[in-house]
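Trying the structure run again after the queue cleared.
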Amino acid sequence: MVFGTNNWEPDNENREKLARIFEEIFAYTSEPQNAAMLESAREQYQSRVGKPFEDDHDFIQRMNTFLEWFIFDFQPEGGIPGAIFTSYLERARHESTTDEMIIRMEISKNMHSLFLVNEYRGSVVKVRDVINRKTYYVTHEDNLEEGDLLESRIVVIGKKSFFTHTHCLHPKFVLGTLKKAVKKIGRDMITPEFFIMIESMQLKWRRSRQIDIKHIYNFG
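Done. Tokens:
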């Protein structure tokens, strides 16, 4: 299945709108009334994935990956998964145009998965969803290359596809291992816990190159 018409034609207008909305969401997460929830999420995330260091070459990406997990997956005690995004949407509902709310609602339906880069042309990248076996043509401006394996989220707006704000790049040579893990777990049984697990593996790989990668990306 392929998503997008005029596949190689970018949609920079909606890409820019999406980027602005994500900056707005990130700003909302740092407002004083959300401080306790944010700190609780940070402690939980870092205890499971690992603490990022400012001298990590991908420090900013790692922090943004945490923020996306906080926005879409974190479940506060007595709350629901994605509670902060639900709260943000409720406030935005009273301040947004119809067009902006449509984009925000599409963000709420984002697809979190593993994507294999098949081809890049200009500002459009063709990716294959490793878990759901769908192909997307994504308007994107970043340094990706054929064969890259990234964990990210895709938002579909109209007939065009976009990555959210960030991604986690996994080593290309674990593609087969991750495919086997997905098959073992079951495509329909993949949860946010799976991505937490492989983000932890990716961080360990970045910092422990002396360890054989088969002992890092190990699913038992």
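The beta strands are 2-3, 111-121, 124-129, 135-139, 149-157, 160-170. Worth checking whether this holds up in the mutant runs.
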